[in-house]
Amino acid sequence: MKINIITTGGTIDKIYFDAKSDYQVGDPVIGELLKRMEVGFEFEVTSVLRKDSLDLTDDDRQLIVDQVKNCDSDYVLVTHGTDGMVETGKWLREQVPEKHILMTGALQPAIFRETDAIFNIGCALGALQAVQPGVYIAMNGQLFDATRVVKNVAANRFEPVNP
Question: Which of 12, 81, 107, 129 has the greatest number of CB atoms lying within 10 Å of its CB?
Answer without folding.
Answer: 12
